[in-house]
């Protein structure tokens, strides 16, 4: 029996033959639309022509002519064939396709598996998530004639996972540039395989930085660095990123430069050997145990011969230098028990040309507040053992180094309670510290310190039913919350004075103290029209009062400590203000006021205003009184903005200005950065101009693929926006 539908006919094969063709899949039938549709009940086949559309589950097939088997779900389509599902699109002249297995063969086909596009003589859909294209090209540019492409003999796409290709020729505007025998890229990786960053910089001259990444195996990736700086020469290196899947993951980097500095004065050495070895590894052994390792080995003859202004991290990897100018090598093992934790740290000096404290090892046990015998009392313990060795930089002799073995334990008992409307927590504790030698390497007994004190706080609030529309602020009622708190802490004079101990850290400098800390917090809260709660204003005032305070100072050359005493006094008044009158506006400020000298030591503020996505302004100021800090005293103003003019153009600006001259800086601009971005459809072009007091002028010209916008090295490496305010 043959049934025909003419004129936008509709055939639902699942309904016509539910018992036979779709007995096993009655809920997921094949729907066929077309100008002409014929169905054979004996053969269970469909023929269609003219604006054909087939739907099965989440797949849609359109074409001019179709032959389909409703039992096997095999289809043969021709004429403007298009197969689409959630994983991608294939367009071809003809396509043999199985709707159930989502496999098939297409000829002269174009494919779209984001972020890649391509075309090939033949395309095989070998699985639900995988296609193999032969004798074609792939690109992330969706133009009919792409700006760039990789021509390849075979391309293997695994949707959402990776693309692999062999016999690759990279072309820009159809001009061949280079050949790659093998290429693979994980979709989870936001970086390009080859990155080229040209520019010019004051201390470097014109430069070109390159990174090439390649796969070593399924769980390891390699990197090759080859950089040219016209005033310094060539530098190269290798790196690796790996995941053992059993014993953790990490990364390795080796960077070497035999530098010939053409900017130095005549008579000064101008050739230097500089290299960096960095290895980081993390292993989550189980849910409670982890191991972290960092190893740094730095050799820098320029630093040795010309001084600390020349350092390989500062000169070549400024972002790393800003975060840590003297990186440490260490291994840390952490284990969490139920309610406590144990840390074992091994910290060994690997660079002899700077001072460093070694810990071989340091073992710490931490037990936070736990109830005692299910009663009202809580117990806290912190204990540590450390072998401490302070190593002086070469050429200091080893006799200048100092060491000590130290065991320290702190035990505290507290009683959280509530008296009327005041929450109060009194506590008492003791600390015992054992040293194997004193400042003169003589034996000594343990040091004991007694602690006591109490924390008290309460909270008052009042609700005001106000709904002002002042300047368009979204305020629906106000709640004023006042939280005063008082903390009192006393510790008795240690049985061993600080003068008898070598100074390694704050544990060794503990002395008698007796002080109150006073804090007053004010908050104004409201509800927005969308129901969310917002803190409109928060103001905190804090100060302390010390009874006959003692101050400990130490001499870094001898590690000896001296204790001085002054009269009872109030400390500085600390002021914190945070205001958010609108969801897109924030004002934050902090200040330190010396009531004895009657002047502000520091004042900082930041104002950030977000107009819309990628449209914002930020301004800030950092003021430090020279009476407080003569070296850094001064007045710095910063300004930043990000402004997208239209979908094609975006501008970014960051400036930091020193208002007055200090012992560390002259007045004027410390840093200026201007970035202009242009959307080139498949590419993003960044033109960055940076002026820094320390490094001079730098110009970066960068082209990034929109599909892989991340960069191995940041051209905006000193950019601090949106946080305004200078940083030391």
The gist of it:
By secondary structure, the chain is mainly beta. It contains four helices and 43 strands.
Q: Could you list some keywords that capture this structure?
A:
twelve-stranded antiparallel beta sheet, 26-stranded antiparallel beta barrel, disordered C terminus, 728 residues, 4 helices, single chain, lipopolysaccharide transport protein A fold, mainly beta
Notes on the protein architecture:
With 728 residues, this protein is mainly beta. Among the domains are: 2-186, Sandwich (lipopolysaccharide transport protein A fold), CATH 2.60.450.10; 579-728, no CATH class. Helix content is 3%, strand content 63%. It has 4 helices and 43 strands. It has a 26-stranded antiparallel β-barrel. A hairpin with a 3-residue loop joins strand 10 and strand 11. The longest helix has 6 residues, at 301-306. It is globular.
List unreliable stretches of 5+ residues.
Answer: 4-27, 716-728
Q: What's the end-to-end separation, in Å? A: 87 Å
Whole-number mean pLDDT? 86
| CATH uppermost class of the domain at 2-186 | Mainly Beta
E-strand count: 43
Q: Taking Cα atoms only, what radius of gyration do you get, to the nearest Å?
A: 35 Å
Write the layout of secondary structure elements.
Layout: E1 2-12, H1 13-16, E2 31-40, E3 45-56, E4 59-69, E5 74-85, E6 88-98, E7 103-113, E8 116-127, E9 130-139, E10 148-158, E11 162-172, E12 175-186, E13 194-201, E14 205-217, E15 220-229, E16 233-243, E17 249-260, E18 271-284, E19 289-300, H2 301-306, H3 312-316, H4 318-323, E20 330-336, E21 341-347, E22 356-371, E23 378-391, E24 402-414, E25 417-419, E26 422-435, E27 447-457, E28 460-464, E29 478-491, E30 513-527, E31 533-546, E32 550-554, E33 561-565, E34 569-570, E35 573-582, E36 585-594, E37 599-612, E38 615-624, E39 634-644, E40 649-658, E41 668-680, E42 683-692, E43 696-705
Antiparallel strand pairs: 1-2, 2-3, 3-4, 4-5, 5-6, 6-7, 7-8, 8-9, 9-10, 10-11, 11-12, 13-14, 13-43, 14-15, 15-16, 16-17, 17-18, 18-19, 19-20, 20-21, 21-22, 22-23, 23-24, 24-26, 25-26, 26-27, 27-29, 28-29, 29-30, 30-31, 31-34, 31-35, 32-33, 35-36, 36-37, 37-38, 38-39, 39-40, 40-41, 41-42, ...
């Amino acid at each position: 029996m043959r049934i025909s539908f003419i004129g936008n006919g509709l055939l639902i094969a699942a309904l016509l033959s539910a018992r036979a063709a779709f007995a096993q899949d009655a809920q997921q039938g094949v729907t066929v639309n077309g100008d002409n549709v014929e169905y054979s009940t004996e053969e269970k086949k469909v023929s269609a022509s003219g604006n054909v559309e087939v739907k099965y589950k989440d797949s849609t097939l359109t074409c001019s002519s179709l032959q389909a088997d409703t039992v096997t779900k095999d289809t043969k389509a021709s004429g403007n064939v298009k197969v689409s599902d959630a994983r991608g699109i294939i367009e071809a002249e003809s396509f043999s396709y199985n709707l159930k297995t989502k496999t098939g063969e297409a000829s002269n086909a174009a494919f779209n598996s984001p972020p890649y596009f391509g075309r090939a003589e033949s395309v095989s859909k070998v699985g639900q998530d995988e296609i193999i294209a032969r004798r074609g090209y792939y690109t992330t540019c969706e133009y009919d004639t792409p700006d760039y492409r990789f021509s390849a003999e075979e391309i293997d796409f695994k949707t959402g996972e990776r693309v692999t290709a062999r016999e690759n020729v990279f072309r820009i505007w159809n001009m061949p540039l280079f050949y790659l025998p093998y290429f693979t890229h994980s979709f989870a990786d936001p970086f390009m395989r080859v990155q080229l960053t040209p520019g010019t910089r004051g201390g470097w001259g014109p430069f070109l930085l390159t990174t090439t990444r390649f796969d070593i195996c399924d769980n390891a990736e390699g990197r090759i660095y080859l950089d040219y700086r016209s005033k310094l020469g060539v530098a190269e290196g290798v790196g690796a990123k790996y995941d053992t899947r059993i014993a953790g993951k990490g990364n390795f980097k080796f960077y070497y430069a035999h530098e010939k500095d053409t900017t130095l004065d005549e008579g000064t050495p101008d050739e230097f050997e500089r290299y960096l070895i960095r290895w980081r590894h993390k292993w989550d052994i189980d849910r409670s145990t982890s191991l972290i390792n960092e190893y740094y080995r730095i050799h820098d003859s320029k630093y040795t011969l010309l001084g600390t202004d020349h350092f390989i991290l500062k000169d070549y990897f400024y972002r790393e230098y800003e975060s840590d100018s003297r990186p440490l090598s260490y291994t840390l093992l952490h284990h969490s028990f139920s309610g406590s934790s144990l840390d074992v740290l091994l910290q060994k000096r690997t660079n002899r040309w700077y001072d460093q404290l070694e810990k071989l090892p340091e073992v710490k046990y931490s037990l936070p507040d736990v109830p005692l015998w299910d009663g009202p009392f809580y117990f806290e313990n912190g204990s540590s053992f450390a072998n401490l060795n302070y190593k002086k930089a070469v050429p200091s002799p080893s006799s200048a180094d100092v060491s000590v073995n130290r065991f320290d334990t702190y035990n505290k008992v507290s009683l959280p309670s509530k008296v009327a409307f005041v929450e109060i927590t009194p506590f008492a504790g003791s600390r015992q510290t054992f040293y194997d030698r004193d400042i003169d390497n003589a034996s000594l007994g343990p040091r004991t310190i007694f602690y006591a004190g109490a924390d008290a706080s309460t909270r008052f609030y009042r609700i005001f039913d106000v709904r002002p529309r002042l300047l368009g602020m979204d305020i629906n009622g106000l709640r004023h919350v006042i939280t005063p708190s008082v903390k009192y802490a006393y510790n008795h004079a240690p049985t061993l004075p600080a003068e008898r101990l070598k100074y390694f850290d704050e544990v060794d400098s503990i002395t008698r103290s007796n002080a109150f800390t006073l804090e007053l917090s004010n908050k104004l809260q409201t509800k927005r029209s969308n129901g969310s709660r917002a803190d409109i204003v928060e103001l905190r005032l804090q100060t302390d009062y010390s009874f006959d305070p003692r101050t400990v100072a130490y001499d870094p050359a001898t590690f000896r400590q001296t204790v001085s005493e002054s009269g009872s006094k109030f400390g500085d008044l600390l002021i914190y203000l945070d205001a958010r009158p609108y969801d897109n506006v924030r004002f934050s400020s902090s200040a330190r006021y010396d009531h004895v000298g009657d002047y502000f030591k520091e004042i900082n503020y930041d104002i950030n205003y977000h107009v819309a996505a990628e449209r914002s302004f930020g301004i800030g100021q950092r003021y430090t009184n020279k009476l407080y800090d003569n070296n850094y005293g001064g007045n710095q103003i910063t300004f930043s903005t990000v402004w997208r003019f239209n979908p094609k153009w975006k501008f970014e600006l960051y400036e930091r200005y020193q208002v007055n001259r200090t012992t560390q800086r002259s007045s004027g601009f410390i840093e200026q950065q201007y970035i202009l971005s242009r959307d080139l459809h498949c590419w993003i072009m960044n033109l960055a101009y940076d002026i820094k007091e320390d490094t001079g002028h730098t110009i970066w010209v960068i082209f990034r693929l929109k599909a892989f916008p991340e960069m191995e090295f940041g051209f905006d490496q000193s950019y601090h926006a949106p946080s305004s305010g200078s940083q030391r």
